[in-house]
């Protein structure tokens, strides 16, 4: 339920506008129940020392110092995309926050790594971690405190959604491993990771609140929230992520940035999150309400309606709301302690570099505060090369993600001397320059990433054509998306056709697609279907290579006899070329697997997955399909897709044998009781003196126009104190209380009740290479709940996966997989807990190379494993 807004005139205008515009309501039953107060951080033992250090500083900070660190100094008011105020007297610096999930945005001498969706397609936990470490090293090298990634929401519920490619795939467990391993990697070098966007931001259009309209409301039930969309966030919190970014949209009618149900209840109490919560950029729509609802940091600090005027819901307004008693002092102390504790937790108090780049310009010198008309200037870019040897991990990921969908007659791998005809502009770099479009907001040339804040500038782009040249391949290139008349087809030619499909973030529209693929639908861009058809009409051996943000329709050409092979290279980043060559020429066997299902038609999906168009008032997006997205839906509707989730061929074959299942921790239907909360720091709760927020006289002499400050004019600070003395009261929202709660039974540690993560069973499996080429296999483990339950569960659900190393022909490797208590539970809405619905029941534990190639079944009750094909 949305809490009331702050006293600001801007919010009052907004409130009246949005309430008169609200002609469509959230459907009955979709509730974001108020949850107060915001739980204090510092109650898990793994953060105790950082909270202790933080509390020593916080106890010594003035009101204006505290409010200064909870918000950005304004959009374009510093070198990074977000820059917090500092508290230099206690030696707490301004923090630099910077995008994005695949590399440093708007910078130089950085690596443009493969996108999240590509990482997901590797099904390789080691590569997920290694990329995280490399990202962390680069962000640290540029002096960035807070990395704005990984993205695990959107989940990819909606295939046309613009930003699905920033995350790891359309399954919560794949997304969870991708997010958690990335966080662990990033944070291993002391950079604070930010898991985003909480939650259910499944389409780009109408995502933001503005003067005319509230942001779209994602309406989802409690079970769907827990079992799908929250799952990756829980794993990220369990990995100790330092920051969480709230999504732009509303959930069940309440804006995520001030949704007390999501922040206070789900994130801070149930998931035991100890770090700090930030808004997405200009997503904060109130002052007091967002603070009470648990928001800790406002980004980039400005009001959401008209930024750059020097107006904020926090900063000086936060100081005012403390002085007039609207926000309890302990709420501010908690927010500040969370921010400082995270900084200590990641060791950033020890020799952390200062920013040495500028997201606003590539010039060496420029304005220090470009958002101000009158800014001092100075050196802003020092061009520090942070790439190290990260191209290697980037290339390994790009290669090991390549997903071979079809390979008729073993046309791949190619012989070194194959005579190649190459078609499609996607094979070569954008002729206007690899970084010519801001934030990659165009689809020209090789598609290495989608567009928006999740993009990064390329240091170089190794295109497929570059790599063919480097190999000395025998090829002719036709740099066109229309079939050329002069290609002289010969029977021995092999045609490589490069096609793509793009999407991105909503602030840029590319070829009529405003982020989401509204006009492209799930089709290839630039008449790619026609190009493939035309090539297939003239050549008998055609290989189609697809760079894509997500699922596309292949039906227009997939079954043409000439189309022998189809490869998804996903979004490879800078290493598009050589990674592909290693697969095409067979140096390495493909080992990528689809991180989503490929349909035969958009009609395969339920109607609730259509993009939501314009609606008067708040657009309503009701997740009526519940748990049934991607393969869960295809199973339920009994639809055979073109390619199933997890599908991916190799140049060799594998057998899965000698499977065993071993019980570890005995199950009970209800988890063991959670541990009690530890004791967080506490502070005096007296409202500080107004003087703690007065503008210092000397500060006025260097005041930057439109920069956001936390000080108040003396008269304003005194007036706030007078309001308090006069007994004026803030209209607190329903359910508001200041008494801290013990926390729900499902909580107890970072990620939730630690017992949820007890290993219930381990599964071991022997993988043998039964073919003639060296290759890597992926074992995917899916759980089928026991039959006859009162509760409905999807046919099977991915719960774990493991990838072998390169196996020579005949070689074997034993893989270990595991199932936790949570993996075997359902979220019980009434009990508000994870319950095992049948302790004695026989869970089917299915293992295979794709969701439609499950060939080993282990039974939890029978205790044995058999070779058997799964069928619905
Ligand atoms: C908005 C995007 O949604 C978010 O992911 C990004 O981190 C911020 N902008 C900052 O650029």
Automatic annotation (TrEMBL):
Pathway: Glycan metabolism; cellulose degradation
Catalysed transformations (reactions): Hydrolysis of terminal, non-reducing beta-D-glucosyl residues with release of beta-D-glucose
Gene3D superfamilies linked to this entry: Glycoside hydrolase family 3 C-terminal domain, Glycoside hydrolase, family 3, N-terminal domain, Immunoglobulins
UniProt keyword list: Carbohydrate metabolism, Cellulose degradation, Glycoprotein, Glycosidase, Hydrolase, Polysaccharide degradation, Signal
E.C. designation(s): 3.2.1.21
Membrane spanning stretches: none
Domain Fibronectin type III-like span(s) in chain numbering: 777-851
Protein name in the entry: beta-glucosidase
Protein's organism: Melanomma pulvis-pyrius CBS 109.77
């Amino acid at each position: 339920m949305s809490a009331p807004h702050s006293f600001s005139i801007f919010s009052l205008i907004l409130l009246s506008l949005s309430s008169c515009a609200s002609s469509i309501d959230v459907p009955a039953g979709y509730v974001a129940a108020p949850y107060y107060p915001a739980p204090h951080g510092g109650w898990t033992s793994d953060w105790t020392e950082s909270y202790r250090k933080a509390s020593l500083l916080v106890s010594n900070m003035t009101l204006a110092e505290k409010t200064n660190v909870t918000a950005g100094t304004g959009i374009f008011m510093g070198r990074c995309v977000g820059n917090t105020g500092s508290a230099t007297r206690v030696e707490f610096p301004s923090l630099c926050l910077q995008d994005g999930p695949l590399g440093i945005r708007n910078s130089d001498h950085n690596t443009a790594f493969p996108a999240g969706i590509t990482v997901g397609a590797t099904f390789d936990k080691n590569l997920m971690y290694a990329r995280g470490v490399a990202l962390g090293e680069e962000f640290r090298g540029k002096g960035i405190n807070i990395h704005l990634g990984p993205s695990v929401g959107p989940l990819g519920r909606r295939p046309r959604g613009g930003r699905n490619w920033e995350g790891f795939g359309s399954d919560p467990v794949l997304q969870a491993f991708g997010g958690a391993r990335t966080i662990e990697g990033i944070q291993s070098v002391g950079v604070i990771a930010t898991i985003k966007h909480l939650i259910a931001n499944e389409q780009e259009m109408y995502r933001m609140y503005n003067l005319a309209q509230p942001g779209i409301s994602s309406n989802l039930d409690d079970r769907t929230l827990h079992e799908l969309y929250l799952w990756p966030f829980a794993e990220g919190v369990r990995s100790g992520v330092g920051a969480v970014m709230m999504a732009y949209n509303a959930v069940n009618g309440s804006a995520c940035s001030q949704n007390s149900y999501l922040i206070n209840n789900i994130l801070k109490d149930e998931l035991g999150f100890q770090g700090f919560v930030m808004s997405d950029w200009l997503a904060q729509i109130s002052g007091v309400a967002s603070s009470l609802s648990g928001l800790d940091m406002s980004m980039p600090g400005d009001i959401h309606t008209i930024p750059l005027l020097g107006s904020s819901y926090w900063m000086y307004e936060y100081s005012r709301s403390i002085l007039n008693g609207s926000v309890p002092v302990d709420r501010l102390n908690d927010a500040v302690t969370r921010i400082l504790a995270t900084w200590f937790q990641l060791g950033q108090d020890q020799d952390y570099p200062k920013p040495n780049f500028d997201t606003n310009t590539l010039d060496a010198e420029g304005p220090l505060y470009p958002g101000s008309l009158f800014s001092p200037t100075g050196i802003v870019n020092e061009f520090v090369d942070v790439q190290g040897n990260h191209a290697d991990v980037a290339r390994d990921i790009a290669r090991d993600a390549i997903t071979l969908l079809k390979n008729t007659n073993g046309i791949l791998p190619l012989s070194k001397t194959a005579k190649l005809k190459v078609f499609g502009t996607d094979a070569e770099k954008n002729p206007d320059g690899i970084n010519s479009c801001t934030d990659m907001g165009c689809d020209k040339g090789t598609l290495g990433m989608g567009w928006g804040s999740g993009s990064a500038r390329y240091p170089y782009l190794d295109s497929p054509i570059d790599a063919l040249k480097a190999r000395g391949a025998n090829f002719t290139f036709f740099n066109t998306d229309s079939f050329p008349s002069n290609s002289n087809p010969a029977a021995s030619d092999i045609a490589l056709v490069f096609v793509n499909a793009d999407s991105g973030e909503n602030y840029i529209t590319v070829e009529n697609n405003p982020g989401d693929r509204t006009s492209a639908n799930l089709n290839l861009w630039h008449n790619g279907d026609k190009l493939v058809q035309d090539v297939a009409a003239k050549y008998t051996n055609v290989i189609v290579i697809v760079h894509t943000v997500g699922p596309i329709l292949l039906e227009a050409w997939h079954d043409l006899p000439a189309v022998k092979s189809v490869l998804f290279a996903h979004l490879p980043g800078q290493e598009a070329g050589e990674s592909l060559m290693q697969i095409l020429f067979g140096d390495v066997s493909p080992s990528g697997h689809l991180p989503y299902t490929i349909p035969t038609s958009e009609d395969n999906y339920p109607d609730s997955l259509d993009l939501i168009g314009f609606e008067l008032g708040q657009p309503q997006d009701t997740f009526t399909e519940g748990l049934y997205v991607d393969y869960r839906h295809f199973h339920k509707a009994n639809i055979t897709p073109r390619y199933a989730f997890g599908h991916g061929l190799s140049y060799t074959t594998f057998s899965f044998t000698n499977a065993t299942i071993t019980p570890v921790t005995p199950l009970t239907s209800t988890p063991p009781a959670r541990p009690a909360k530890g004791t967080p720091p506490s502070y005096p709760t007296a409202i500080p003196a107004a003087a703690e927020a007065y503008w210092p006289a000397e500060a006025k002499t260097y005041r930057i126009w439109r920069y956001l400050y936390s000080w108040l004019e003396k008269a304003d600070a005194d007036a706030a104190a007078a309001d308090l003395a006069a007994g004026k009261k803030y209209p607190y929202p329903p359910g508001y209380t200041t008494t801290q709660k013990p926390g729900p039974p499902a909580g107890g540690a970072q990620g939730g009740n630690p017992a949820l993560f007890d290993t219930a069973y381990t599964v071991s499996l022997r993988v043998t290479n039964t073919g003639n080429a060296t290759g890597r296999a992926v074992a995917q483990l899916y759980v089928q709940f026991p039959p006859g339950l009162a509760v409905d569960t999807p046919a099977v659900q991915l719960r774990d996966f493991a990838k072998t190393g390169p196996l020579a022909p005949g070689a074997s490797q034993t893989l270990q997989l595991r199932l936790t208590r949570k993996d075997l539970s359902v979220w019980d809405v009434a009990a508000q807990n994870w319950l095992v619905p049948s302790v004695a029941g026989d869970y089917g534990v299915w293992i295979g190379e794709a969701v439609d190639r499950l060939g080993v079944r282990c039974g939890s009750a029978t205790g044995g494993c058999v070779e058997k094909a799964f069928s619905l």
